[in-house]
Write a structure and sequence with these properties.
Elements: H1 3-7, E1 13-25, H2 28-34, H3 36-56, E2 60-64, E3 68-73, H4 76-94, E4 105-117, E5 120-122, H5 124-135, E6 141-144, H6 145-151, E7 158-165, E8 174-179, E9 192-194, E10 207-210, E11 214-215, H7 223-238, E12 244-245, H8 248-251, H9 261-268, E13 272-281, E14 284-293, E15 299-308, H10 312-340, H11 349-360, H12 365-381, H13 386-398, H14 408-425, H15 429-442, H16 446-459, H17 464-476, H18 480-493, H19 498-514, H20 518-531, H21 536-549, H22 551-564, H23 573-576, H24 586-600
Helix pairs in contact: 2-3, 3-4, 7-10, 10-11, 11-12, 11-13, 12-13, 13-14, 13-15, 14-15, 15-16, 15-17, 16-17, 17-18, 17-19, 18-19, 19-20, 20-21, 21-22
Length: 621
């Protein structure tokens, strides 16, 4: 096809199989911060070297972005040889510089199907090459298993098997190999694979192996139950996209063996190991489990579960759900503590996100803003980090709960953040759930929000936060029964997490109120206020519940509100209960409007000037 014909339709997309070559400068932001002019000059010189070599090997440069290069080769052999030649030439260019001034590239290569539009490359083939590039050491080349299969009999080089890697945004794990940049002479022996010098590197996210459970019952027929339970736990954990979970086949190589947990961690390249046992006693089965930090041997969690043997499959499912619900928060907390011990110059995007989540869950106005700052830093370091975008939106969403008046511009920012998060990680349950919450309550798209919430739970039914969000959306839809079911599931999955339990308990107040079960609602709100006596939203809920049935208690709740927040005005209730949203169920809106009108005349609230303290749970209604 003539060049002019191709360029006449810039929207046309074609597909082809190519070797994708992705190169990126290591530490580019640091180098620019230290010496902007010198870095730009050095980068220009090295790009000239790299671009010439790519052309010499018959390839075409496609997408570029300053410090990164993406090229397509018709041959995997040419791509790998070019990468090795390039790293050798670039190392020579860096030889006279001090280590902190060197401009080093990391290169990833994958052979795969790509989409081509207006000369640029898109698709999984590109994404895999880019992720392989992040696995490479500075000055090194990392290739996929598919690429290795093409070059191993042709190129006389050494390859280090890095094992199976789970990389961000790619669903299936990828086998990776590191290429020795100092290639052997052409007449040397064929390529060889050498063992990695050390154990597999720990992934850049929490990593866990679930060992086969020991059958302590003396009944060989219970073996299938123990194995099936482990498989269920592995499958459930694998639904959390930001966990690296070793596959069953690798875990079960330890079946029937006495193991050293630290050795297992080293051999499998994981930080955490879950082990347990099964014991049958009559018609009952007892399952125990313990979570261990394989790097230190420290025990992070232990528990036991019992059930009737005749309900063995239900018991298996319940145990898997309980174990996953219990250990996921422990994994998150352990990773947060690990991040806190690292020096600041080693923090990566994921580290910032972890620290932000830790602050976000403390539910305080100052920690909410600190968390937002950390999520924005995570986005700055990795603009394709979907969860960081969703988490930043969640911080903005919670501002009204802590006395911040959210502007229309801030609401728009939150909507834009979750829209971007969906584009980046539309198959991530965390992103889907938060997008659903914000679209429902801040963009008047309640049905869309409900659908996104259901998609999140279909992907991961083991995440308590997703069930909490499902509960609040059901409250807004006026479905009290479904809301109760969702909140109970959230508590069942994560009973030790105060943040999730109190969020669900508060939600149950609204669900009971919708169902006319005011005595149950009052019991729930008393639980909340016993643990959070300054919770403004809680006191308003109590006031609403008692308003008609028990005026004395309603007056007492109003006294508490006035004492806690003396500058509150009745007009602020519209913001507190999010009454402006068209998405709110009409029955719920009428109830809250009634509360506002009654409260309008109480204790001279009309004369109060400004709001000074938290407005709890503003936008969740």
């Amino acid at each position: 096809m003539p060049l002019g014909a191709r360029m006449s339709d810039p929207t046309k997309v074609s597909r082809r199989l190519v070797a994708v070559f992705a190169a990126d400068v290591e530490g580019y932001s640091r180098l620019m911060g230290a010496d902007e002019v010198g870095t730009l000059k050095g980068l220009t010189e090295r790009r000239a070297i790299l671009d010439k070599l790519i052309g010499d090997h018959g390839a075409r440069i496609a997408n570029t972005a300053g410090d990164s290069v993406l090229a397509e080769f018709g041959s995997a052999v040419d791509a790998v040889q070019c990468a090795v030649d390039a790293q050798t030439a670039l190392a020579n260019a860096n030889a006279s510089l001090s280590p902190d001034r060197r401009i080093s590239f990391r290169i990833g290569i994958h052979i795969g199907d790509v989409m081509v539009r207006a000369g640029d490359l898109f698709g999984d083939g590109v994404n895999i090459a880019a992720r392989l590039q992040t696995l490479a050491n500075p000055g090194a080349v990392c290739i996929s298993g598919a690429t290795y299969d093409q070059v191993r009999k042709v190129l006389p080089m050494s390859f280090v098997d890095l094992g199976v890697q789970q990389v961000k945004t790619i669903q299936e794990p990828i086998r990776a190999y590191q290429v020795d940049a100092q290639s052997e002479p052409r007449e040397a022996a064929p390529a060889r694979v050498v063992e990695a010098e050390g154990p597999p590197p720990l992934p850049d996210k929490p990593s866990i192996a679930v060992l086969p459970s020991q059958n302590m019952s003396g009944d060989p027929e219970q073996e299938y139950f123990a194995d099936g339970m482990v498989e269920e736990i592995i499958a459930a954990l694998s639904r959390f996209k930001y966990l690296f979970v070793i596959a069953r086949n690798s875990s079960f190589t330890y079946k029937g063996k006495a193991v050293d947990i630290k050795q297992v961690g080293r051999e499998l390249g994981v930080r955490y190991v879950l082990e347990g046992s099964v014991r049958k006693a009559g018609s009952r089965v007892r399952i125990t489990g313990q979570l261990i930090d394989a790097t230190t041997g420290a025990h992070l969690w232990a528990d036991k579960f019992e059930g009737a043997l005749q309900d063995v499959l239900d018991l298996q499912d319940n145990v898997a759900m309980s174990v996953v619900g219990a250990i996921y928060p422990r994994l998150r907390d352990a990773e947060v503590e690990l991040v806190k011990r690292r020096p600041p110059d080693s923090w990566a995007s994921y580290d910032f996100w972890l620290r932000g989540i830790s602050l976000f869950c403390q539910r305080a106005p100052e920690t909410l803003e600190q968390a937002l700052d950390l999520f924005r830093k995570a986005i700055e370091l990795d603009q394709e980090f979907g969860r960081a975008h969703a988490s930043a939106a969640a911080c903005i969403y919670f501002r009204p709960a802590f006395g911040r008046v959210v502007t229309s511009g801030e609401r728009s920012e939150a909507v834009q953040l979750v829209t971007r998060a969906l584009a980046l990680a539309g198959d991530d349950n965390y992103v889907l759930a938060w997008a659903g919450m914000i679209f429902a309550f801040w963009n008047d798209e309640l049905e869309r929000g409900s659908d996104l919430s259901d998609r999140a739970l279909a992907l991961n039914p083991n995440w308590s936060g997703g069930w909490n969000i499902r509960g609040w959306l059901s409250v807004a839809l006026g479905d009290g029964a479904r809301a109760l079911e969702a909140f109970d599931r959230a508590i069942r999955l994560n009973p030790a997490d105060d943040f999730e339990v109190l969020t669900a308990t508060t939600g149950k107040v609204s669900a009971f109120h919708l169902l006319g079960r005011n005595s149950d609602a009052l019991e729930m709100i008393n639980r909340v206020l016993a643990r959070r006596p300054n919770d403004l939203r809680g006191w308003f809920d109590k006031y609403a519940i008692c308003l008609n049935a028990d005026p004395a208690r309603a007056a007492d709740a109003a006294d508490h509100i006035r004492a806690l927040y003396p500058h509150l005005r009745s007009s602020h209730l519209r913001a507190l209960f999010n009454l402006a949203s068209r998405s709110i169920n009409p029955k719920r809106r009428a109830l809250l409007e009634s509360v506002r009108e009654h409260f309008h005349g109480l204790h001279n609230f009309l004369s109060m000037r400004r709001i000074e303290a938290s407005l709890r749970k503003a936008s969740a209604l």
